[in-house]
Write a structure and sequence with these properties.
The chain is mainly alpha-helical. It folds into two domains: 2-86 and 145-250, no CATH class; 89-141. Helices cover 67% and strands 8% of the residues. It has nine helices and four strands; from the N terminus they run αβααββααααααβ. It has a two-stranded antiparallel sheet with strand order 1-4. It has a two-stranded antiparallel ribbon with strand order 2-3. Strand 2 and strand 3 form a beta hairpin.
């Protein structure tokens, strides 16, 4: 036991293989309140998505002519989306992008530091290379327009919002902190989701209009739900760090496994 107490000085609380004890009734109450907030967000999702699209339109309308706002159905909802045309790559541009993506991909594979990061960058590079090959040989078979892409994109982002919000909700509910703090962090996540959604939507339009459809795959797979998961984990990490720092010396809520 004395040895374990000594370890407290060198092992951070969130790395110490400890268990959290708490009232099941309070945890269930916290989950119920957060589920209610999530339900309200889902209920008002149409104006939230409309805000994302309307702000994007107001900014991009000064940059591009012919930009329009259309509506489409998605389950029980009717969402707005932007309608415009994208840019197809020339054969020369596709060739240059193919060469650069292959060279950069193999270069990333050779880097030994931050291996996980550079493996991911290599994957992204090869994905762009495959997209370049497609437009070099099958450009006439490209199956969708930019409007279709933007319509699907807003639907996928909405699903990502709900999924990551549910994961975060269930993750923070058991922590020994006040319901107000949980509501604050959960609300912060929802606000960040909307803010990131606005910037991301405009970014997608600009890239596909200025730099061609070659980059559509990485915009969907890299800047789609993956981004939502990343900032959700970041917000959860901040929450855990604050709670563990505050509760690290409170033996009533943080106990060694086996006590």
């Amino acid at each position: 036991m004395e040895h374990m107490d000594d370890l407290k000085r060198v092992i951070l609380p969130h790395r110490a293989y400890r268990v959290i004890s708490g009232s099941k009734e309070k945890i269930l109450l916290d989950i119920a309140v957060l589920v209610f907030l999530l339900g309200a967000f889902i209920y008002f999702s149409e104006p939230v998505v409309s805000t994302v699209v309307d702000i994007s339109y107001s900014v991009l309308d000064d940059m591009y002519s012919g930009l329009e706002v259309h509506n489409h159905g998605f389950g029980l909802w009717s969402f707005k989306h932007l309608s415009t045309y994208g840019k197809y790559p020339s054969e020369l541009f596709s060739t240059v992008v193919l060469i650069v993506s292959i060279l950069s991909g193999f270069m990333f594979l050779k880097i030994n530091r931050l291996k996980n990061v550079f493996l991911f960058l290599a994957f992204v590079s090869f994905m762009v290379g495959v997209s370049s090959l497609y437009f070099m040989f099958f450009i006439e078979e490209f199956p969708y327009s930019l409007e279709t892409f933007l319509q699907i994109y807003i639907d996928v982002v909405f699903i990502a919002w709900i999924s990551t919000a549910l994961i975060l909700l269930l993750s923070i509910s058991p922590f020994p902190t006040s319901l107000f703090q949980k509501i604050l962090f959960f609300t912060l996540f929802l606000l960040v989701s909307v803010g990131v959604g606005i910037v991301r939507y405009m970014f997608v339009v600009v890239v596909l209009k200025e730099f061609t459809y070659i980059f559509a795959p990485i915009l969907f797979f890299v800047f789609g739900p993956l981004i939502d998961l990343i900032y959700m984990v970041f917000i959860f990490g901040v929450f855990v760090s604050l709670v563990t720092y505050k509760k690290s010396k409170d033996i009533r809520v943080w106990k060694w496994v086996g006590w």
